[in-house]
Amino acid sequence: MQARAETIVNDIRPTHWRTLWISDIHLGTAGCKAEFLLDFLEYNEAETLYLVGDIIDGWQLRRRWHWPQAHNDVVQRILRKARAGTRVVFVPGNHDEFARQFVGHAFGDIEILEEDVHVTADGRRLLVLHGDQFDGLIEHSKWLAHLGDTLYTLALWLNNHFNRLRHRLGLHYWSLSQYLKHKVKNAVAFITDFEHALAGEARRRRLDGVVCGHIHKPEIREVEGVLYCNDGDWVESLSALAEDHEGQLQILDWSAALAARPAAGRGRGPRTLALPALPSALRRQGKHP
Ligand SMILES: [Mn+2]
């Protein structure tokens, strides 16, 4: 298992990856750092680009319309990549779950899948999904841990249908951010539980690992004998997950990459923007993971 430590990439030459994973962009919210993502997309190409959920924040847009030009540009740039030959796969999350009704269909050149199994260049099979599917289970992880496999699968199914029903009734999605806000002391424990729930799911399916998003915390590490990868977000951490042509996986920390870029090289870069604070679950109060 090649669970390497995260790599901070500050050598910003245009790079062609085998695979890129980005998630939690939250287009439609003021917190979205669209300019940084545009910069990232300009420097990074891939054979396959996974959009791992919470790309467009439908929940936020329903409350208040916020759609500046940069957010439009992100959509256009991704569509252009798809037209130019990048395979783009969209795996919806809880904030863009409106797209889940289109699972199995294509939107232009973009495939929409509930989840996927990605095979790396060195043959490892990774489950790709947003991760919100496990929220309700984590909240009750203490007693769910004692359930058998069949009951666990049933609980997972009920949790997802519970949230779909809430959506249909016009209620808000069970919110991770609200949960954390009221249980900040438990935020670290929550993240650990999340990682174990996702890794556990990959292991139950006899896969080598999982790639997810949702909790806005980039990570590559081995959990319960499988590889746990979280591609981070474009609200706080400004990070992506990348696979090179040999199958090596790494976190691309674009905030560090931008900070390290020589001033002379900053052409179209968003240099007038302040870098956001480092990702911290404890500082996430009031945001929308
Ligand atoms: Mn999410």
Task: Chart the SSEs and their pairings.
Layout: E1 15-22, H1 34-43, E2 44-51, H2 58-63, H3 69-83, E3 87-90, E4 106-107, E5 110-112, E6 116-119, E7 125-128, H4 135-139, H5 141-144, H6 149-168, H7 176-182, H8 187-204, E8 209-212, E9 219-223, E10 226-230, E11 239-243, E12 249-253, H9 254-260
Parallel strand pairs: 1-2, 2-3, 3-5, 7-8, 8-10
Antiparallel strand pairs: 1-11, 4-5, 6-7, 9-10, 11-12
The structure holds manganese (II) ion.
Would you mind describing this structure in some detail?
This protein has helices at 34-43, 58-63, 69-83, 135-139, 141-144, 149-168, 176-182, 187-204, 254-260, and strands at residues 15-22, 44-51, 87-90, 106-107, 110-112, 116-119, 125-128, 209-212, 219-223, 226-230, 239-243, 249-253. It has 289 residues and is of the alpha/beta class. The chain has a single domain, classed as Metallo-dependent phosphatases (Purple Acid Phosphatase, chain A, domain 2). A seven-stranded mixed beta sheet has the order 4-5-3-2-1-11-12. It has a five-stranded mixed beta sheet with strand order 6-7-8-10-9, covered by helices on one side. Helix 1 links the parallel strand 1 (15-22) and strand 2 (44-51). Helix 1 packs parallel to helix 3. Manganese (II) ion binds next to loops.
Could you write a compact summary of the structure shown?
This protein is an alpha/beta fold.
For the record, give the distance between the C-alpha atoms at the N and C termini, rounded to a whole number: 29 Å
Strand order within the widest sheet? 4-5-3-2-1-11-12
Helix content: 25-40%
Reported for the largest beta sheet, the result is: 7 strands, mixed
Give the name of the CATH superfamily: Metallo-dependent phosphatases
On the 0 to 100 scale, the average pLDDT is 80
The unique ligands bound to this protein are: manganese (II) ion
CATH third-tier fold name = Purple Acid Phosphatase, chain A, domain 2
Our Rg estimate from Cα atoms comes to 18 Å
In one word, what is the shape? globular
Run of helices and strands: EHEHHEEEEEHHHHHEEEEEH
Number of helices: 9
Low-confidence stretches: 1-6, 264-288
Strand percentage, roughly? 15-25%
Q: What's the CATH architecture?
A: 4-Layer Sandwich
Name of the level-1 CATH class: Alpha Beta
Strands, count: 12
Structural class: alpha/beta
